Amino acid sequence: MLKDDLNTLSTSSTVQLPDGQSDSLIFPIVESQREIEGDKQCLNERRLDNVSMEQWIAVANIQSGTLQPRQYFDESEIDSLAKNFRENGFKGILNVRPLDTERYELIAGERRWRAAKKAGIKKVLCLVNQFSDEEALQFSLIENIKRVDLSKLEETMAILRLIEMRYGLSQAQASKIIRTEGHPDKRSRCDVAPSQELQNIEAVLRSFDIELQTFRTRNLRSLFLPNELIQSHLKGQISWSIALEMHKLKDTTVRQALLEEILNRESTSFRWVQQRVKALRAEVSEPIKQASASLGHQLKVVAQQINKVEQQLNQDQRHQLETILQTLDDFLKNAGE
């Protein structure tokens, strides 16, 4: 019953500061009101045995979460938060799970934890729960989507990881099922029922209010972006839509030049990028068209020459020609891979 568990965590709690300080603070714990059929079923099967406990824990005893969906943290934001902590003390609460009697793993609140370390804060307020790996990933993912927009790549990777944990489908398997079985042409056929695997995947996507077709046509594309676009997107330098648009430029040099141009601009709209990509593709494609036309003409000439001399070739020459043609055929078949 994820909704009930999260509602319990989403209440505010008045806690006493450590070291005998008299001021009390209201700490927002967790906010999430998503009602999830799949998550209800999952947590119905395994309820948390331990009641959530609030306690002040040494920052040095907390380690970064291995299931953190976010891959990039803006250092300027962390610096600003650290400055606030130094001036006003630690605010907020971290979600952790115990590793042993003294050490804890962070589940949610990594920006605050990093800022606390940078600010020299000794102890931070934590909410301790016995999360399983699946519950920890799901909780962290919901928190990130709810509070701070994840990049589409981070969101996609985390959701595929959750699918793998819950149903044993690897990222490659889940992606293939979504691309093939989830295709509109197949979904529209009344004689083809969706597989159990696809139904399971859809249940996870619904838990985050994501439509299957949106995930298929948009999210999965983020997995195939070039590294420079991935890094710029993770750092928040370019939007997801701009990254996908720039991916249309297959020439690495041209794409890199446009990326540098975008990063040097004060602001860049998607429409501006769309127009630049269209113009650059036209510039690049014209020489390719001319080269293709030239190659096509050469092949036609070669074919005509073969027709003229074919009857005059001896057995060895014919065998040599067949070998050459087979090599050319193999090359053309593998050229696009």
TrEMBL record:
GO terms for molecular function: DNA binding. Gene3D superfamilies: 1.10.10.2830, 3.90.1530.30. Residues 55-145 form the ParB-like N-terminal domain. GO terms for cellular component: chromosome. GO terms for biological process: chromosome segregation. Coiled coil: none annotated. Pfam families: ParB_N (PF02195). SMART domains: ParB. SUPFAM superfamilies: KorB DNA-binding domain-like, ParB/Sulfiredoxin. Belongs to the ParB family. This is ParB/RepB/Spo0J family partition protein. It comes from Adonisia turfae CCMR0082. The lineage of its organism: Bacteria, Bacillati, Cyanobacteriota, Adonisia, Adonisia turfae.
